Structures are given as structure tokens and as C-alpha cells.
Amino acid sequence: xxxxxxxxxxxxxxxxxxxxxxxxxxxxxxxxxxxxxxxxxxxxxxxxxxxxxxxxxxxxxxxxxxxxxxxxxxxxxxxxxxxxxxxxxxxxxxxxxxxxxxxxxxxxxxxxxxxxxxxxxxxxxxxxxxxxxxxxxxxxxxxxxxxxxxxxxxxxxxxxx
Length: 161
Prior knowledge:
Strand order of the largest sheet: 1-2-3-4-5-7-6
Distance between the termini: 25 Å
Strand content: 25-35%
């Protein structure tokens, strides 16, 4: 991570760059397709969408471009916060940015009095799984199918705070 990396709250105006970031990350995996309007329309106005559901969303900028993202929303399980949409551009990886963004979600969870952070991650995102496990997240036995155009199946992860 370079000194020029700035982490800030996302704005709705970040839509184009955020969609580009996530699209590039997904394109690294065969069969993973980003259908913004059909499956993740919140990307068009991320700050508004997350505020509406009691969440928060951050982006990391490097050289004036969004290089990473992460969000947090109340967990479906009582007492927790769910980490969502942790994506780091290929050129910004292995510099501590993913860990730093995960730490923001964990700090937000503690500030809200949550006792854990949980998340769901596509079974194909093996690099992400290694990061989560290195950060202390434990993979649960459960999986879920999203029935989306990418035919996503996700693993469940949880970290006690």
C-alpha cells in the first residue's frame, strides 16, 4: 500500500469506478459475471443504499482511482455486523489494503457493540479465503446458493470480536 492511498466513506458518485473495480475482480474468475442492474443495483448509489439499510461503505483511492472497497451492514444474525464487497484491484493487492479495510469493518462492529463480524464469499474466491483465514475468520460448515447468473455458491465465515 502506498502513502497516497486514501480510505474514505463512499459516495454515490463513485458508482462508475466501483462497478469497474468489481467487474475487473470478478472477471478474474471463469463464469463470474457482473450484472449490475439485475443483481447488484446498489452499486449505482452505494452510499445511499448502505445508509438505507443501516450500513456503511468505504473506498480506497490510489492515484485518484478507486483501488479497493468494503462495506458493513447489520448481520442477519443478532449481535453482529456483516462484511460485504471487499474487493482490491489486482495491482493494489499484497500491500495490506484488504486487511486494513477488514479492520475498518471490525472497528465499526466494535463501535456498534457487535460481538462478531460475518461474511459470505464465493467458493471460487480462494485468495479472499486465505486473507479471511489469516485475519482470524473461521469458515463455517454452511454454504448458500445465490441462484444468480454466475451460479454462485458461497462459504460462510465468522470472526468473534
